[in-house]
C-alpha cells in the first residue's frame, strides 16, 4: 500500500492507468472502494489519481474536526506531491463539494469538473433517522433515496487503522461538518470556468431542484439526474454513471 505525507498526515493513495490525469474525491464516511466502479472504467483511457482523506478508508483519523477547507488544502498538496498542475476532477458528495470549491478557488488546477450529489449549504437536508440527514455511503437504504452507512461501516471496519470501534467518532465529526458546512453562495459559482457536469439521483437526499440550481449557476454546466437512484447512485447505477462521466470527459 502507498501512503503520502500530506500536510503532516499519512494518507493512503492509489494511481492507475495512463493518459490525461483524473482525480477522484470520495464522499464522507467512504473509502476509495465506493468509487471503484468509476475508477475501473476510467483507467482504460486516463491516469487515475485518488487518495483517502483523514479518518476515511485506510487513512488514520485526526484529533480535530473536519472541514472542507482542510479537504481543499489536502487536495492541493496531493496534486503538488505528484507534480500535477491541472487535472480532471470527479467528486462524490463531500468530494463533490471539495471539487466545486477547488474549481471556484483554484481554477487553474481544474481541467474539468464532475460533481456528483453536491450541495451548497446544509439546509437541503431533512433529518429523518438517527443516522442523520445524509450519509455518503451506497447503496442500502431504509427510506427511498436515503443512504445508510451499513456497507461503508463494513469497509471502515475492514480498512481503518483506527479500528472498527472508531467509526462512531468519525460519524459524529462528519455530522458536525454536514450541519454547518458548506456555505457556498450560488451566485459565486458564476466564476467557475471549467467544463462542468452536475449529477445526482432523482431520489437523492440532494433534491433535483438543488442540483439544477448548482448547474444553472455555472456557465455552460451540464446536468444529469439519474433515474431510480438515491444518494448511493454511484453504486446503484455504476455502469450508467461511468458512461456519463466518460462521455463528458471525451468532450470536455
Automatic annotation (TrEMBL):
Lineage, uppermost ranks: Bacteria, Bacillati, Actinomycetota, Actinomycetes, Micrococcales
Stretch list, region Disordered: 125-149
An example Gene Ontology molecular-function term: hydrolase activity
Entry keywords, A to Z: Hydrolase
Residue span(s) of domain AB hydrolase-1: 22-240
Protein name per Swiss-Prot or TrEMBL: Alpha/beta hydrolase
Family annotation (InterPro entries): AB_hydrolase, AB_hydrolase_1, AB_hydrolase_fold
Amino acid at each position: 500500500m502507498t501512503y503520502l505525507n500530506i500536510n503532516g498526515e499519512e494518507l493512503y493513495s492509489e494511481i492507475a492507468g495512463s493518459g490525461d490525469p483524473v482525480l477522484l474525491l470520495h464522499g464522507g464516511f467512504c473509502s476509495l472502494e465506493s468509487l471503484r466502479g468509476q475508477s475501473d472504467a476510467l483507467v482504460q483511457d486516463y491516469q487515475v489519481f485518488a487518495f483517502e482523506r483523514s479518518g476515511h478508508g485506510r487513512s488514520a483519523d485526526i484529533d480535530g474536526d473536519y472541514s472542507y477547507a482542510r479537504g481543499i488544502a489536502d487536495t492541493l498538496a496531493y496534486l503538488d506531491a505528484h507534480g500535477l498542475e491541472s487535472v480532471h476532477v470527479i467528486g462524490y458528495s463531500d468530494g463533490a463539494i471539495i471539487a466545486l470549491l477547488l474549481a471556484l478557488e483554484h481554477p487553474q488546477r481544474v481541467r474539468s469538473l464532475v460533481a456528483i450529489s453536491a450541495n451548497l449549504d446544509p439546509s437541503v437536508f431533512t433529518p429523518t433517522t438517527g443516522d442523520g440527514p445524509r450519509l455518503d455511503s451506497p447503496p442500502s437504504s431504509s427510506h427511498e433515496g436515503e443512504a445508510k452507512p451499513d456497507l461503508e461501516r463494513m469497509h471502515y471496519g475492514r480498512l481503518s487503522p483506527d479500528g472498527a470501534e472508531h467509526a462512531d467518532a468519525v460519524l459524529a465529526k462528519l455530522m458536525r461538518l454536514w450541519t454547518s458546512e458548506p456555505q457556498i453562495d450560488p451566485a459565486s459559482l458564476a466564476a467557475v470556468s471549467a467544463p462542468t457536469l452536475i449529477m445526482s439521483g432523482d431520489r437523492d437526499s440532494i433534491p433535483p431542484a438543488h442540483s439544477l440550481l448548482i448547474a444553472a449557476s455555472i456557465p455552460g454546466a451540464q446536468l444529469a439526474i439519474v433515474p431510480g437512484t438515491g444518494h448511493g447512485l454511484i453504486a446503484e447505477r455504476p455502469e450508467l454513471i461511468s458512461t456519463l462521466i466518460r462521455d463528458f470527459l471525451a468532450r470536455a
